[in-house]
Write a structure and sequence with these properties.
148 residues; mainly alpha; Arc Repressor Mutant, subunit A; 74% helix
């Protein structure tokens, strides 16, 4: 079942249950899908693009949450956290740090990277292999630690 079908089914369910938090999160995803489909690029929404779309929504929510926390706006922060929980349901399981380190070490071995100057080469492969399974900042930090 693709993301759009799953979202439509979950939206109906959230409406029946009158779950406002789920409705907000699911509607945000549905709006992002609609924008992607009507952007004029003519691209299909495959699984990889679905993950990128969801990650973008998560990053937007995280950025807003950080601002609201700094400004002591707990009322708005709660809304962002709720939406993040809903969006997280549709993302693949995130890898823990130990698993990430193992994958990054394998990539470093494959590429023959020896120092920080090879970070771009390693990051390219790591981003490709770990797409949707880990946050880009976390990957970059682990690659940098491993290479230095």
């Amino acid at each position: 079942m693709n993301l759009e079908t799953k979202i439509n089914n979950d939206l109906k369910e959230a409406m029946k249950n009158k779950d406002q938090a789920a409705l907000r999160g699911i509607r945000a995803i549905k709006a992002a899908i609609l924008l992607f489909k009507t952007d004029g690029s003519g691209q299909d929404l495959n699984e990889e693009k679905e993950i990128k779309l969801l990650q973008k929504l998560m990053k937007q929510r995280q950025d807003s949450l950080d601002i609201y926390v700094k400004q002591n706006r707990d009322d708005l922060a709660i809304v962002e956290r709720e939406e993040m929980e809903i969006i997280q349901r549709y993302l693949p399981e995130q890898m823990n740090e130990e698993e990430l380190k193992k994958v990054i070490q394998n990539i470093i071995s494959e590429t023959g990277a020896s120092g920080i100057k090879d970070m771009g080469k390693v990051m390219g492969l790591a981003s490709q292999k770990l797409s949707g399974k880990a946050d880009g900042k976390t990957i970059a930090a682990l690659v940098k630690d491993s290479l230095s």
